[in-house]
Fold each of these.
Amino acid sequence: MRKVWCIADSILSPLGQGSAENLSALLSGRSGIRRYAAGSFGAGHPFCASLFDRNAFDVSEMPLFEQVLLACTRDAVGRSGIDASSPRVRFFLSTTKGDIERIGGHPEDLPLCVPAARWAAALGNPNPPLVVSNACISGLAALLQAQRMLQLGLCDVAVVAGADVHSIFTISGFQSLGALSASPCRPFDVARDGMNLGDGAACLVLCAGEEVPEGAWELVCGAVRNDANHISGPSRTGEGSYNCLRAVLAECSVDELALVSVHGTATRYNDEMESVALFRAGLSELPVCAFKGCFGHTMGAAGILESILCMLALDEGVIPPTPGYADPGVSSPVNVCVASRSTPKRAFVKMLSGFGGCNAAMLFRKNGCA
């Protein structure tokens, strides 16, 4: 089976443009989380989120969602040196809502295939893009789909991008579930009271082959499991997440892992479920990182954005911190990384979970570090 390598990356968020700038923000303690008053974005209650300044964008010609998706992808493609117009290059889009903020005036744009087709065409790619929209695990699910197509020889290069920008639809929806916090979120903390949303886009360019690009990270393996627990609530026993972890841990030893990048939404049941899954998988002592206290929940971008941050941090020999965490508030022990710490290890697992009982995990390893 052909190995799959990451050859370029990019992140675009309210904290900056480019992966390096966003990593610097995380490691230096800067956060994009801001408090918004009731009435902002049509919300009925105050909330905290990391959102782009809408006044900084001209949306008369192109929706904000498509602007940030295109800008982020152009940056990654430019860094990779690939020919995006080649028929052997395939584009993969991860998003949960797409252009949902245009629901009132442009219903023709609502099918996710429409903005996806414009995105690929803007970069000159002749193939229909593949869209992955599977709640919060969309980013890892898209990476896994791209990995499989590369391994099967169905393409030579995969451009995998995730993006979402928030609107009255998502903000009021999560508020109706009582899931949003009016304060900066606190993953795994005893005082956590909900999540923060976040705008953002992230892109990874992947290739396959035995000839390893210098300094490349490998997508070793991934797994998606659905425990069918509830339409919005996670399994109390962490069944789906545990089974994902068990699948990817078959390809590595726990000792070689630097960290687990968890979903870490700071909601009552998600953090509890992940703590149980980590304990059942024998990972309670492994450093755990959650980044939503810095970037918010970037939805379709989350799996890609948070994976890029881990790769770049470990390239510098650093385990990133978990903004907002202070005191343990889950039933199973979790080794949450409070402040940056050094590590010689160059492998990690990324976890995600989402509505409908969907769960995903992926193992990443630096070339030569097996």
Amino acid sequence: MSITVKKSFRRKNPSQFIYEIIDGKPIYYRGYKEAVRNNLGVEAIKGCSTLQSEIVFFVLSNIYPFYDRKKYRILTNKLSLQLDSKNILSGDIVIYDKQVLTGDKINNKYPDVPPKYVIEIDTNADLSESSFMEYMTRKTEKLFEFGVEKVFWVITLTQQVIVALPKEDWLIKNWNKNIELFDGITMNIGRYLAEEGIKI
């Protein structure tokens, strides 16, 4: 059964378009203003690009054959992380220590314990009122405060990977180089895309 949402309701209540919440302030999906103006649902703007999906596949294909399944739990699908009552962040690829995210914590709720590593491929956030650098910095620092040990940002526009560690200088690397994720597992996004005939 389909549900029709009145146009006036969508305009007054754009909560369906919330992508993340940082410090109690909602951050909406990119393109949400046009969606509200044209009376579209969140499905019209929620998805990711083929490039983002391809990179997620590639990163996971590098991790899966080599990671310690007894030690780590890998979650995807834009997982929402409940840092506290004022902060809910999403993650493209989120890697947990199984001693932290134990089996009894797998349910229909957002996890409220910190992952060990987070890998982000671009963002679907609306940044019309801020810059990507400001958003990326705020989100990364929030993840560090939560207890995340390492954050990767894959930036397709500049073909770079930012490797961020708490209280250390962040590294900006060309994605054509081998980049270590964790436990000796590496990735080379540029080489993979070239082999697949994918041109940016």
Amino acid sequence: MASVCDLAASLPGELDLLAAVAADPADDTVKLVYADWLDEHDDPRGPFLRRFVSAARAGTDLPEPAVGTIGWRQIVGVTLEIRLRSHGLTAHRDAIFRVARPAVAIHTEPARTADLPVGGSQFGGLPSLPAGAGWPRCEEAPLEFLAQFDLAELRRTVAGRALPPAGLMSFFVYHDYDRDAFGGPDSRGVPGGLRIIHTPPGAELVAVDPPDDYAEVHGRPPGPCRLTLTDGLDVPESAAGWPEFDDRGAWSSLVRHADHQLFGYTHVTVLAEDPTPGPDWEQLVRFDSDRNLRWGWGDGHRLFWYIRSADLRAGRFDDTVAIDG
């Protein structure tokens, strides 16, 4: 199992209510309905959330956030509300909350292969594939294994509910480190160089060693990392297109920082603009450069992996785009 320590939901049936809150973070009425439900379960988060919403509406002092996990306080908007207050952006509260999206922050920690179960969530190491399956390849060479997610585990997060409910989702990419070429859409792109494999639940999985022609230049499998997943809300990288915001530094303080992230917004480090392919696309996952994994997408770049929203809803993962920046 991944080290899942910052999930928002802790009670049976709670995730549905949290998903409704995260679907429209600006709607305080939904939060109060959720607070009533927490009251019915004698959960101290209920009275706190009600006091917090009331104080936010009235512009009075916010109560100290002394209940709930970090992930819970983020997904219900407590953390974002506090940041708005501290940077003088409360006049734009509703507008900012309306663009907030649920996301899952991912942090890595080196682990021993023996301590991670076959079929569990991990970055790096050896992939878990159905018994007898070959290592994924493109026309150039074997693909580099990046990550795999136990979808039943991700289903416990708010944003992860957009993915299939069970099975294993594995990410592979062609990457020639010497030429800085990978399976992207531009001039360095390699046909077949991006692969997402969704293995249905119930398949017999085994850890697969790379083939003999898997060279160092293709990214020899690093030692595996276990994952810590944290629920939360994400906002756009900047207030570009929002002329009423003249304090870009204050806006940037709202951005949620994570090593890697599922869903949410693109946060570039080098590119001058958002590389999302179009309005019908969304970020599926962001893989950061990571010393724990010896990953480097250019000079400290990130690898943004996009999917069409319609394909995500249909559970289709065979036509995706990855861009570094």
